[in-house]
Amino acid sequence: LLSSSFSTRNKVSSDAFSSWINRAFVSLQIIADPAAVEKFRASLTRLGDVYVNDAFGNSHRDQSSLVGISLPQRAKGFLVKKELVYLEKALENPVRPFLVILGGAKVADKIQLIKNLLDKVDEARWPSPSSRRHRECGLANRSSTRR
């Protein structure tokens, strides 16, 4: 997989566009060896002149193919731009009633988001106040339903 991707640039003309599959499936994304990570990032950087991130759902991740490519020209892709426009509309001028349901295992990662949303939403749902994560994150005194 990697060798065929890395050799692509040699086969592409100077004004061509090249795209690769989702790099999240590459095990080097999460490898712990710093030297191997740097080698992987350098390999990706050599593949092109411009980096476009169109993976909105992965943009928060600290993966080598998202944060480690050192190209001077970087941009958001059309999908990322579209998602940001929808998010801005939802937060700036939401359709009422505005219900937010947050889930996932990493509640601590969402605390700032929850606090920012509380004054904007009509109702919010998150783990029950009796949950250990809820207490650890400082939300034990807040109701899990806000009207």
Automatic annotation (TrEMBL):
Record-level GO cellular component terms: cytosol
Gene Ontology BP terms: gluconeogenesis; glycolytic process
Alphabetized Gene3D superfamilies for the sequence: Phosphoglycerate kinase, N-terminal domain (3.40.50.1260)
Segments for region (Disordered): 125-147
Pathway: Carbohydrate degradation; glycolysis; pyruvate from D-glyceraldehyde 3-phosphate: step 2/5
Reactions performed catalytically: (2R)-3-phosphoglycerate + ATP = (2R)-3-phospho-glyceroyl phosphate + ADP
Pfam family, one: PGK
Entry EC no(s): 2.7.2.3
Entry annotated with the keyword Protein biosynthesis: no
Keyword hit for Transport: no
Cofactor (UniProt): Mg(2+)
Primary enzyme class: transferase
Keywords, sorted A to Z: ATP-binding, Glycolysis, Kinase, Magnesium, Metal-binding, Nucleotide-binding, Transferase
Gene Ontology molecular function, alphabetical: ADP binding; ATP binding; metal ion binding; phosphoglycerate kinase activity
Family: Belongs to the phosphoglycerate kinase family.
Subunit structure: Monomer.
Name listed for the protein in its UniProt record: Phosphoglycerate kinase
Biological source species: Pristionchus entomophagus
